[in-house]
Amino acid sequence: MHAFPFALSGLRRSLSSRTIGTALISSALLLGGCASIAPDTGSSTASESVKRTYHERIDLAGRLSVQYQQNGKDEFLHGSFTWKQDDKRSDIALLSPLGQIIAAIAITPSGASLTESGKASRTADDVDALVSQTLGWPLPIAGLRQWLQGFATDKDSQAFVAGNNGDRITTRDGWQLAYANWQTDAAGNRYAKRLDLSRQTNQAGKVEIRIVIDNWQPR
Hints:
This protein is mostly beta strands. It is built from two helices and 13 strands; from the N terminus they run βββββββααββββββ. It has helices spanning 127-135, 141-147; strands at 29-33, 58-70, 73-85, 90-95, 101-108, 111-116, 122-124, 151-153, 159-161, 168-170, 176-184, 190-201, 205-218. The strands form two sheets. Strands 1, 2, 3, 4, 5, 6, 7, 10, 11, 12 and 13 form an eleven-stranded mixed sheet that branches. Strands 8-9 form a two-stranded antiparallel ribbon. The termini are far apart. The model is unreliable at 1-47 (pLDDT under 50).
């Protein structure tokens, strides 16, 4: 995976239809992460057996870098996010370097909506399809609800817990996940610090996403 500097010059224009991906502003996009934890301990793996608890109610915040292709050329996006979820709803905000909300995504039992700044909301039953059509590249929101906390289902429909089954997995929908770094909270619980995702797509060629979790707060 290419190096993605988080303070950058190439975030591109400003999240607009089919261009959120080519327009998150030239620097840091905000990705809402899951973690209110202690600073990174420097540990690079979690190969030891760990007990991981899934939190239905959690607030996350962090940074995001994306590499994809458009018209045969490599494109790079960088920024940050916020992520809030409970058992019935998830709210994700993509933000500009100055903290302005560029796009807000909401998922409820009745469907998903995506609202860009200054535009009417778009809705769909499938949040991943909605996000992909709007951004021009895929961001697997549905899967990240579990993946950000170290849980996944592999291509053979087997349950996966990062740190027990390993740090890499290919999910049943074709994403390759790699848990690159870990962090420990005050209670000694380990959580992902960095998650790398990659997938070959028809829409945007080879897509590589790096997520760094800066704040994790179960509720």
